[in-house]
Amino acid sequence: MDKSQATNARKAGTGKSAIGIAVIVIMIVVIIAAIAYALMQPGVLESLVTVVAIIAVVAVALIVIGYIAMALMALPMYAYKGEQYQEGVDYNLDDVKSVEGKDSKDEER
């Protein structure tokens, strides 16, 4: 036994997991083969493209409608909230002073 391993460590078999992974790989291959076979049939590809195009158009339309609805709901909130600003304050970049010899690590100590 290696010195880096704990003395109470046990090794369990992974046979069931390996069989499960093999079944998943086989199912993926079967699904890909079935899709390839279906696409080789006449008329299937055209109808599939039509269905996918319709689904894409509906999805884009729903997204656009959602954004329009959010914009329409946000407009009254924006108008009601108003704008806040300070009066009588003049900000000038010449007034900014550099902080030398300090960084974020100095603040943590």
- Through-space gap between termini: 45 Å
Q: Low-confidence segments, ≥5 residues, pLDDT <50?
A: none
| Average of per-residue pLDDT values | 84
If you compute it from the alpha carbons, what radius of gyration comes out, rounded to the nearest whole angstrom? Answer: 32 Å
What is the string of helix and strand elements?
Answer: HHH
Strand runs, count: 0
Work out the strand percent: under 5%
User: What is the overall number of helices?
Assistant: 3
Structural class: mainly alpha
The helical percent reads 55-70%
* Largest sheet descriptor: none
- Silhouette: flat
Write the topology of this structure:
Blueprint: H1 15-40, H2 44-81, H3 104-108
Any key phrases for this structure?
109 residues, mainly alpha, single chain, flat, 0% strand
Structure notes:
The chain is an all-alpha fold and 109 residues long. It has three helices and no strands. It has helices at 15-40, 44-81, 104-108. The longest helix has 38 residues, at 44-81. It is flat. The two termini are 45 Å apart. The model has no long low-confidence stretch (mean pLDDT 84).
Summarize the structure.
This protein is mostly helical and about 110 residues long. About 65% of the residues lie in helices and about 0% in strands.
